[in-house]
TrEMBL record:
<dbReference type="Pfam" id="PF13489">
    <property type="entry name" value="Methyltransf_23"/>
</dbReference>
<dbReference type="InterPro" id="IPR029063">
    <property type="entry name" value="SAM-dependent_MTases_sf"/>
</dbReference>
<dbReference type="GO" id="GO:0008168">
    <property type="term" value="F:methyltransferase activity"/>
</dbReference>
<keyword id="KW-0808">Transferase</keyword>
<keyword id="KW-0489">Methyltransferase</keyword>
<protein>
    <submittedName>
        <fullName>Trans-aconitate 2-methyltransferase</fullName>
    </submittedName>
</protein>
<dbReference type="GO" id="GO:0032259">
    <property type="term" value="P:methylation"/>
</dbReference>
C-alpha cells in the first residue's frame, strides 16, 4: 500500500522547507542530548527524516559509519537526496520500516512519535531493526493534559499529512518496557531563556506553551532483550 505524499506540511506560505527553517535553531540542542558513543562510527536510522537535515548535522558533529533516512514525503526525500550527496546516507520513501534490510546501532526520531497511531507496531519494528544494546532516541511531548490540545490538534490535522495522536508519556514508556527496553527521559528546553514569540501558532496561552516545554523529553530507550 502506498501511503506516501508530496510534502508533510501543506500550509500555503511554507511547506516542509519552512519547517526545516523553523527547526534550524533547535538542532544543536537536540544533538547535545545524544551520547556521542551512540553515534560515532555507528549505523544510524532517522525515522521521519523529512529533508535530511538532522542526519547531515549529526555527521558534521559526530561522523558515523552510515545512515538511513526514511520518510513518506516524496518531495522532502528528493531534497534530502539532493542535499546529502557528500554524506554516507541512503534515503527511502517507506511506509513499513520492517522492509529495511539493514540493522542499526541507533535509531532517532524527532517530532514524529506524536504522529504514530500504532505505537506497539512501531516500537516492535524499531526493536527488530536495532542490534543488541542498540538505542532509540525519540522526542516526545505529552500533550494529554494541555488545555490547548484541541486547538493544537485542529491546526496540525489541517496542514499535516498525518493526524496528531494523543498518547500519554506513561503509554509510550510502558510500550517500550513491554518490548524489552530500558528507558531514560532526558529533559528538553532546560535553558533559562524561552522564546515565546511564536506561542500563538499552536497554543492558546503562554501558560500552555510553557506546559508543552516542561513536558518535552528526549526518550532514550535501550534494547536490553
Ligand atoms: C513534524 S515532522 C518532523 C520532521 C523532522 N524529524 C524534524 O524534526 O524536523 C514529522 C515527519 O514525520 C514523517 N512521518 C510521519 N509518519 C511517518 C511514518 N509512518 N513513516 C515515515 N515518516 C513519517 C512526516 O512525513 C514528517 O516528515
Amino acid at each position: 500500500m502506498d501511503t506516501s505524499y508530496e510534502t508533510w506540511w501543506s500550509e500555503e506560505d511554507g511547506g516542509d522547507l519552512s519547517m526545516e527553517k523553523d527547526h534550524e535553531y533547535a538542532w544543536p540542542a537536540t544533538i547535545d542530548l545524544l551520547d556521542p558513543k551512540d553515534i560515532l562510527g555507528k549505523k544510524i536510522l532517522d525515522f521521519g527524516c523529512n529533508r535530511g537535515v538532522l542526519l547531515r548535522k549529526l555527521y558534521d558533529r559526530y561522523p558515523y559509519e552510515k545512515a538511513v533516512g526514511v520518510d513518506l514525503a516524496r518531495q522532502s526525500i528528493a531534497a534530502a537526496k539532493e542535499n546529502s550527496q557528500d554524506y554516507p546516507i541512503t534515503f527511502y520513501i517507506e511506509d513499513n520500516i520492517a522492509n529495511l534490510t539493514e540493522t542499526f546501532h541507533t535509531a532517532i526520531s524527532t517530532s514524529v512519535l506524536y504522529l504514530i497511531e500504532d505505537l506497539n507496531d512501531h516500537i516492535s519494528k524499531i526493536h527488530d531493526l536495532l542490534l543488541d544494546g542498540g538505542v532509540y532516541y525519540t522526542s516526545f511531548t505529552d500533550q494529554s493534559k494541555n488545555p490547548s490540545l484541541a486547538y493544537m490538534k485542529q491546526e496540525i490535522d489541517k496542514y499535516g499529512a498525518v493526524k496528531m495522536q494523543n498518547h500519554t508519556l506513561t503509554q509510550v514508556v510502558d510500550c517500550f518496557l513491554d518490548h524489552g527496553f530500558q528507558v531514560e527521559l532526558i529533559r528538553e528546553h532546560t535553558g533559562p531563556h524561552i522564546d515565546v514569540s511564536g506561542y500563538r501558532r499552536f497554543h492558546l496561552s503562554v501558560d500552555d506553551y510553557l506546559q508543552s516545554m516542561a513536558n518535552s523529553f528526549m526518550i532514550k530507550a535501550r534494547k536490553i532483550k
